[in-house]
Amino acid sequence: MTKTHSSPDTNSLLIRIAEALERLAPAVPSAPDFTAADAFVWQADAARALPVPRVNRVDIGLLQGIDLVRDLLVENTRRFAQGLPANNALLWGARGMGKSSLVKAAHACVNAARAKGTPPLKLVEIHREDIESLPGLMAQTRGAPFPFILFCDDLSFDTDDTTYKSLKAVLEGGIEGRPSNVIFYATSNRRHLMPREMVDNERSTAINPGEAVEEKISLSDRFGLWLGFHHCSQDQYLQMVRGYAAHFGLETGPGELEAQSLEWATTRGARSGRTAWQFIQDLAGRLEKRIE
């Protein structure tokens, strides 16, 4: 039996090939430093959470006209941060009524009330298009010494989108299940996260229409807490405007604040918290006052 021996040239070639493969291999993501901030944005392509030093948020006391849903979300968040049972939350309904603002405000409110020395509650935003990378984010938060709110703003799915199935599995259905230190909050304009025509199409083309529709709408059932946001009345809209104006010290003549804000809403064709905030920004600019 003949023995073969590698030549020095062959060994050198194999070493160069191995080194080239190592350079081509993706770098192992470093462990995230969740002590860097209380809020983060998930970057799916790099599989890392980037710290957000200053969160763009509104003080919870300035969110008017949503008292019931505000109290429900803050209480749910407080229980979760204390390690007590709590539900994933879906904030759905009218545009511009403070859904995402409430999530960020509730996070700050609960952290402000946390006892000194207890781990702060972390907020990690994941973009809608990165939902499929949610298991990777959960893998990084699982076992970390902090409670986490994973937050997706404006979550919805289109007709040909199947990523909702991976979200269903992550929220409750997977083998590992949702980590005990993680809760998922989402906002959407749709109660069932999918357009009505998508559900109707499933009903009309399926062999068993009932089962097809159940498959589509069962995603929203993974959220134990549903919080509805509806269009505000004129009185609620003016209450929002007055609250912002008083908070930022914006003074106008008698009756001018109400008249100007109503005219602003008329030109926009809507009354909402977002419309009130946009009016306040315009008013502050005209009064040459900074909003901090």
Model description:
The protein has 292 residues and is α/β, with parallel strands linked by helices. Helices cover 45% and strands 12% of the residues. It folds into 2 domains: 39-229, Rossmann fold; 234-286. The protein has helices at residues 8-24, 67-81, 99-112, 134-141, 163-173, 196-205, 209-221, 234-248, 256-268, 273-286, and strands at residues 39-43, 48-51, 89-93, 122-125, 148-152, 182-188, 225-229. Strands 2-1-4-5-6-3-7 form a 7-stranded mixed beta sheet. α2 (67-81) crosses α3 and α6 (196-205) packs antiparallel against α7 (209-221).
Topology diagram in text:
Elements: H1 8-24, E1 39-43, E2 48-51, H2 67-81, E3 89-93, H3 99-112, E4 122-125, H4 134-141, E5 148-152, H5 163-173, E6 182-188, H6 196-205, H7 209-221, E7 225-229, H8 234-248, H9 256-268, H10 273-286
Parallel strand pairs: 1-4, 3-6, 3-7, 4-5, 5-6
Antiparallel strand pairs: 1-2
Helix pairs in contact: 2-3, 6-7, 8-9, 8-10, 9-10
